[in-house]
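Appendix B. Chain record.
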Amino acid sequence: MNGEDLCFAPASVLASAVARRELSPVEIVDTVLSRIDRLEPRLNAFATLTAERARDAARQAEAKVMSGDALGALHGVPVTIKDLTNTAGIPTERGSFTSQGVIPTENAPCVDRLEVAGAISLGKTTTSEHGWKGVSQSPLTGITHNPWAHGMNAGASSAGAGAASAAGYGPLHQGSDGAGSIRMPSHFCGVFGLKPSYGRVPHLPIGNVDQASHVGPMTRTVLDAALMLHAIAGPHPLDHYSLEAPPVDYPALLGQGERLKGARVAFSPDLGHARVDADVADLVAKAVGVFDEFGAEIEETVPAWGPDGPELGGFFWAAHETNFAGHLEEYGDRMDPGLVACIRAGHGHRAEDYIAMRARKLAYVEAIHRFFMEYDFLLTPAVSVAAFPADRLSPADWPQHEWNWLQWAQFSYPFNMSHNPAASVPCGFTPAGLPVGLQIVGRRLDDLGVLQAAAAFETARPWAQRRPQL
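Structure tokens predicted for this chain:
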């Protein structure tokens, strides 16, 4: 394969070729780094590129192949790590001057597990400041551009991972999702992203956001996401929220059985309250029709719990951003103005307010799980809008607010609260050539079901052959 084809090749193909000695880890890493050199910093997907570390790791990986050592499932395959995720000896700056120069002393569990599987890290991808917003810009790193349209939003705090995936910076990209930050950049950039059930992938340090932030894969194919999830999932002794069960063999089970035949599938175009741009709504509605072809029983529905989302989402987003209030005195003039406004909005809440709203949240979550007693899957738009200029907090034709960007992201944060697995699957392009994602939500713990549904959709509507012209 030529250089560009290698950069866009799935991890499943690369790992198999490495194991058969048809491709060298050194060749793979050098080719991908060459592409990154050509496209960065114009795309600006990397906060820290660790090219020499990657080359050293590739040489060591090649030596293992040649010596006949046992190889991991991702041996020699490039991966990127989000700059909210701790990496030993490599800066983790969180898109913020408040963390500039911070170098952790240990890896987050997913980083260790990727290394054990043989993956080779290329460095850290960009994030919004402390992951606070759904727009690909931070005071420290500037704008990360959407590969499909320069200057446009690549989406949310895993934006660097989404842009890198779409641009052919290798096949595997680690993201995290506290209110949609895996699914939103996947939607904006036209790639696949899975937010697993909470606790499926352990994470350290545990975030002080009421168990909302999930770690998961962002890839160009569903099989690659299954491979990556299999590598990073499973319990960890230091994450007391991590699920006890070891991961099932997601890759092996991905295509087994006719999971969607006879499945009860709910479709909600707006959750009973959300505004959705017409181009997005049209593409999602057409995508839902594919599930009918699989023999699923589809019912358009308005969940009774849906309209409670905006008040809960806005309250807890502002309340949890007060985690960063201690930075305001020293760094306030160098922080994202929207984050500063959000922190100050959260300061207005009393403990009594928080406890009362948390009671409402728990009832909301229970209602979501009761809903999934009736349905196997829920289909919605992943995001209400296609990519818009990345120097804005909201599209120009939407209401403007000093910090509340959640108004155009009403489909994602409910399932951070409820811990359900949810994925964004590419389902088409707007007339302007911008990607759109279909969200597939499953019952809590049914990560395999969501992957199987996404894989079936991918088979019917393949997307990985589409590449942005960079």
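Further analysis of this model is presented in Appendix C.
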